[in-house]
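Reader question, answered in our methods column.
A reader sent in the components of a multi-part assembly and asked whether the whole thing could be modeled at once rather than chain by chain. We filled in our standard form and ran it. Here is what they sent:
COMPLEX SIZE: three components
ENTRIES:
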Amino acid sequence: MEKHLYGLTALFDTPDAVVHAAEETVKAGYTRYDVHAPYPLHGIERTMRLKTSPLGYFALVFGLLGAISAVGLMTWITLVDYPLVIGGKPFWSWPAFVPVAFELTVLLASVLTVVSMIVIYFKFPNNSHPLHDTPFMKRVSSDGFGISIEAADPLFDEAKVHAMLASLGGKEVGAVYFDEADRDHGQKVFDLKFIGVLAGVGIAVAGFAYLALNVLLYLPPFDWMMVQNKLKPQAASTLFRDGIGMRQPVLGTVARGFLPYAFKGKPEEAGKSLANPLPVTQKVLDLGREKYLTFCSPCHGNFGRGDSRLNGQFPNPPTLHSDKVREWSDGSIYHVITEGQNVMPSYAAQVSRDERWAIVHYIRVLQRAQHAKESDLR
Amino acid sequence: MSTETHSLPPVNKSLPPEADRIGLILLAAGVVLVIAAFVFEPVRASFDAVILYLFMVSLAVGALFLLALEYITGAVWSVPMRRVTEFFAGLSPFLLILVLPLFLHIHDLFHWSHAEAVQQDPVLQGKAAYLNIPFFVTRTLVFIGIWIAFAALFVRHSTHQDITKDAALTRSNVRLAAVFFPLFAFTITFTAIDWGMSLEPHWFSTIYGVYYFSGTVIAALAAVTLVVVLFHERGYLPGLRRDHFYSLGALLFGFVNFWAYIAFAQFLLIWYANLPEETYWFIARWENGWQIVSVLLIVMKFAVPYIVLLPQEAKMDTRRLKIMAVWLLAAHFVDLFWLVMPTHSESLSLSWTELGFPLVAVGMTVLLLSWKTKRYNLVPVGDPKLQRAMDFHL
Amino acid sequence: MSTAVVDYTREEPVVAGRPTASEIDAVVSAPLDRPPARTWWIAFGITSTMLGIGVVCVAVTLWLGLGVWGVNQPVSWGFDIVNFVFWVGIGHAGTLISAILFLLRQRWRNGIARFAEAMTIFAVMCAGIFPLLHTGRPWLSLYLTPYPNQHALWVNFTSPLLWDVFAVSTYFTVSAVFWYLGLVPDFATLRDRTTHPVKKLVYSIFSLGWRHSSRHWTHFERAYLILAGFATPLVLSVHTIVSFDFAVSVIPGWHTTIFPPYFVAGAVFSGFAMVQNSLIVVRQVFRLKHLITLSTLEKMNKVMIVTGSMVGYAYAMEFFVAWYSGSQFETFVFVNRALGPYAWAYWTMVTCNVVFPQLFWFKKVRTSIPMMFVIAIFVNVGMWFERFVIVVTSLSRDFLPSSWGHYMPSIYDVGIFVGSLGLFFTLILLFVRVLPVISLAEIKAVIPGAQPERHRPH
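And here is the structure of the entire assembly that came back:
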């Protein structure tokens, strides 16, 4: 296997010696060199004439990215996508957004800056550098200070560099080699092994997801509270003597809004006692019209003339414009809708009380339209 | 290999005579305007005087705090500039003069000082044990007494050390600092409550003392920074390098953030809980023109200094530090104006009476500095940490 | 006037004696290379038993529901929230030591930063358990994050509980990154020391291929500074937001503006106590007394007295303003704390947090290992009771006397807390076996003679 020269390395005992050597290396004009130490040496960046690390700008950009995306997301959610009043505060409550915006700023700025440093500036992970596993690396890892000058440097001349390092007091001045083969054995995306591992991981994740979402979530205690210690209405129960789970209401119980009708079978009394509680307003008349057209017009006709399609198929539905009906009180009409009359059934189940009264008002409108007074026409 | 050391600067230069003249003119003009203000608009002038008092407390007691902080943390970098801090601590006896006109106008300032108002107000009756004139005057005087005593002791040990070079004096100042901190927390909190919070005797906020403290440190640091930079530029403190200014700038930057943190915490909690007995204080500062001052305060005391001081280079750049120091001193003045003045006038108004008070502050400080430089060395030459401080590196 | 004991003209050395870099490597990595001692196994047995108790109690809680806990109406926040705040607080010392003291250039932090950061991460893990369990169905915790879900619902961005989710997860992530970044050079050192092939592989992977290059160190130092700059406001924000959980409400005793700085001071206080306690044991067992010096411990005690006094200041301010406010509810809450049914908890808190740490004013106490150990334990007990007092007293008796209640933890509450302690110390025991407890690179940088004397920048 062919060996290539990576460069020369030299070790120094004290930080001062290595700083001095670095100074001389810079003076000699080398550019592809490095100073190795187990910890950061103060001021080495100035000796090596390195530029100030630009990571501060990275942090600034990533931080602004975090802040803007956080504020943007919260603004869009609370103003556009799902505006919701919370605690009587305005939709866009900026003081409450400060904590989350701050956290995301810090998160993106710190994590992405470190990742950028590792990937862009260090080009890590890289465990196949020629310097790895050399005696030189073992020393600078622990207590040594070293200089490495690469063969790729334009001024590189093995003998000259060797002499210079030795004259600066460098110990164990030596050459580091690398194999071309080592160089190339980088990762390949289409490597069969890599694809195999990828596929294996994919199948495992999918399998676990299926298991978790379709099996695990339906087992207690993760069962969405499907199993509960309570009595369902249709189930049998040993608690009650009749063995039925469902209970009758206590005798005399009246449901809210369902007072029994007081004039059952008493049309005259209903006509006398009941008065329409609703005012005549556009809203009430609109309701009455709607309900009349839905429930009454199939028999009585759209205008109350008793001329619907059913005419002739039944005992004819009577017109609502007859003198009898016109002279009826509101209560009487209400009673008929509630109780029914002759073949007409009760509509109490379909039409609520207020709707019935609204229908009564609407019938009065229809009657007035057919029997307009002179004053109405003016 | 020789360890590089930095030589000590010359230490006994005094300010040129123009300083005296400028200081005297400013002070005289200020005093005339202040007297005129008290004659023509006594109530407004009293409120202005409260702002001046709180401002000067910030400089004097804030400087004391910085002194104590240096001793207790064993900080090294600040030793060459400690004399400037000590000069500012020397303002504390003058607080007695500044507080006198306020005592004469207690009834103009404090709603709770009116017996008939307290009689109709059960809440104020409950506080009467604390908010009454004799106790109020006594504790103010005791606080000033404590500050004067500590300023005198700190400075005496420090200046005495110039002659004796005795390291034991540093040790006794460290002990003094340890005793001073609890007293400082106590006095600065109750000064803030007395002269700031009790202007609105129904309002309360537990963080108020910390809020005033944060502004106090900013003001004192800014004043010290300003004078240190000016002295340095004119060759009075030549030994200082970027490393020293960086430390000063970083501390200033840190406290700007701290102030913003405290101010935001107070606002957020009151805004969020929305209790009427607390919110009215902020509403008063968000109506009738006061919202301008509120926004100005955020911009002046946080946004601008934050952006300017954020880069590393800015904290070492004396020019930017100088501008920011003046800027932050102005910001602290606006802060105090925002805290105090809405009690006096419901809508934002500026009056000619405001003019005299800053003049008094500046004139007084210039005269004091000039006088102190004649009397004392500009650098604590006897301090055992001085050589380390001159060699200080980041 | 006594003669000065301290020599002010010279900087106090961080490391005692003059150990060489290779000696430091040897002593710090020694526990990684030898089989654990018998005492370690005993300690591990105890902590993993505690962890086991916790696991059983969590399992019972999940199976039967939160009804097994002591929480009730009106005290719907009990041990879970107390423990959450307690653990988050413990975590704060780590970031304080690694970030804030770094920015303040306190070089004595170099010996203890690694350990403190590890504690931060473990403490935040322990803290995270409690709010998740408190949700009742922790397996649905994805709903805590804002993602476009099938219900078209978003999280409530105005809720401090949601801020907590962001704060704690950010805190955990950034702490972990900070910790790992500091570990990278040490992994490289371990990689080059070890002869064991498996260890070498593992260390190589985690070292990312670090070459101790000065070109890298410049970026590394910059990144470390940036991280410290962000971690500092972050650590303040985390406990600030935890305090918002309480302070944005209108409950008397919770709604008070001093809560944010007060919580932060308390967090640092308790965290330092925990770090100090653990370090005393570690430096004893692993013979690191010259690297974690008595002077370092003394400085930590000084931090404790400062933060303890800040906490005391906050107690006093709360009391004063409760009276000064003239609000009868506020006044009642504080009288009730001191004299009501939980007075025992209140006075435990005051004694442990405010009274005992004052002993640190005496140098004798500050430099006596047994004394400081006991006081730090008291501080931790006191800080736990502080959270108990805040959570329970305010909830158990607020505006309506008809709705007052009483809280007593159930055996499961206690078991889960014991479990979290077990988790924490188990993780610490594992940590000291597999990673260097002292940052090799950082401690080497502060031994005498480590830095070039000449060639200083101007």
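What stands out: Chain B has one domain: 17-385. The radius of gyration of chain B is 21 Å.
Send us your own complexes using the same form.
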